[in-house]
Design brief:
Blueprint (H helix, E strand, L loop, with lengths): L1 H18 L4 H34 L1 E9 L14 E5 L2 E6 L15 E10 L2 E9 L2
Parallel strand pairs: 3-5
Antiparallel strand pairs: 1-2, 1-4, 2-3, 4-5
Helix pairs in contact: 1-2
């Protein structure tokens, strides 16, 4: 993003210099090059934003969700916390606040559709919908 702003400022300066008495052809050529550089920077910035959005959103998957302490007996947990079974791993759920007691995760696991991804041993989610 900084690169995009730098190129925008550079383009503005080139246009000003071109209009303020520089050689007509050379100024036009320089302005066209700056415009091309600006377009390339804008495309790169858009690609970076799209990549960041995809990284945050993650993928949709169906998982079993239960209390990491009461149901899955996860090491290191001394209190109730939501967890999910992903493949062969049981991972803590983060990203969305879930009250394990209020929705009954301490008595039995439930199936849920989540949008998220595994990061550093946790399932970081942006959305969860329990299957009824």
């Amino acid at each position: 993003m900084k690169r995009f702003l730098f190129l925008l400022l550079t383009f503005s300066l080139v246009v000003c210099v071109a209009g303020c008495g520089g050689s007509g052809e050379k100024a036009e050529e320089t302005a066209q090059k700056a415009a091309g550089d600006l377009e390339t920077a804008a495309e790169e910035a858009a690609a970076e934003v799209q990549e960041a959005v995809e990284e945050i959103a993650g993928e949709e998957m169906i998982v079993e969700v239960g209390c990491g302490h009461c149901i899955y007996h996860m090491d290191g947990l001394e209190a109730c916390a939501p967890a999910a079974v992903v493949g062969q791993d049981t991972l803590l759920l983060t990203g969305v606040e879930i009250d394990a007691h209020a929705i009954g995760l301490c008595t039995a696991p439930k199936k849920a559709t989540v949008t998220g991804q595994v990061k550093e041993g946790e399932l970081v989610i942006s959305r969860i919908d329990f299957v009824k």
